[in-house]
Amino acid sequence: MRILRTVFGGAVFASIACAAYADVPAGIAALEAGNVSGAVEEFQAGFDDGDADGAFFIGRLFEMGLGTERDVRRAVELYSAAADQGSALAQNRLGLMFLNGELVLQDYQRAAELICAAAKSGDANSAFNCGQLFADGQGVEKDAVKAVSYWRQAADQNHVAAINYLAQAYRDGAGVEQNYEAAFANFSRTGGAGNPLGLFEMAKAYRSGDGVDQDLIKAHGYANLASARGMEEARTLRDTLNVQLDRDDLEAAQSFAREWEATPMDQSAQ
Fold it and tell me: Which residue blocks in 121-192 are alpha helix, DSSP H?
């Protein structure tokens, strides 16, 4: 047993804590329940017991101003401490701060070092971000093939943006052999879950017949669904198809959209 004292937001919280109960997931649960002070104690105890993510989560509280005054500089210090001990979450967040120059020097090389190190640990967000760095040539040599490999790593964990970027790579032949069928299959994963971009790309594919049999009724239906989710380009496509479909087909297209239901990503992948 030990006394755990954490200074946070000007207040000092003291409690009896047992190392066996030092638990970052318990801190997350406490935070979700609205118990910020209890969450901080759990995060601090977790960090003291070797879980680097504990410092990351306290840093997030400072960055977001939850339970304390917002203090991004303090957040950077905590992210740095967590990153030094191998927290992929902290490495990714700190890397993004170096990428954008948020209260640290803008440094693409340092950003890439941090983000791609986190990606190698298996973190999906970091893998997506590392892929974007290779696609843009920020902090690393531009390499479309490596970009695709990182997006594929994240896509395997149902990372929606990574799946869409992987689909675009297949569609455009960027870093991978052009394959419209693979592009459509990936866009279908996100579109089937209700992602606006995935739905729009499905609509475009059904209109052109690239990677799937041409079907203007489904093209209109998916464009309609994407438009309802805020995709202006999808609205333009839908309205263009309005004048290409006869009355019966237009009614069928609207019925398709009306009856369509999204499937959660974890179910659509099964």
Answer: 124-136, 144-155, 160-172, 180-192
What one-character-per-residue DSSP string does 91-129 give? Answer: HHHHHHHHHHTSSS---HHHHHHHHHHHHHTT-HHHHHH
Q: Which residues contact 270 (CB under 8 A, 6 or more apart)?
A: none
Residues 118, 129: Cα–Cα separation, whole Å? 10
**Whether this model's pTM surpasses 0.90:** no
| Class of the CATH domain delimited by 1-85 | mainly alpha
| pLDDT tens-digit map of 158-196 | 999 999 999 999 999 999 999 999 999 999 999 999 999
Q: Residue 229 is encoded by which pair of tokens?
A: 């989710």
Q: Which residues on neighbouring strands pair with residue 7, listed in sequence order?
A: 12
- Structure confidence by residue, pLDDT tens digits, 6-16: 333 322 222 22
SS3 14: strand
CA gap 218, 126 in Å, rounded: 35
Dihedral sign for Cα atoms in the order 71, 77, 83, 85: negative
pLDDT at 270: 33
Domain ranges of the chain: 1-85
Instruction: Give CA separation, 144 vs 34, 134, 257, in Å.
Output: 44, 7, 36
Cα distance between residue 202 and residue 196, in whole Å: 10
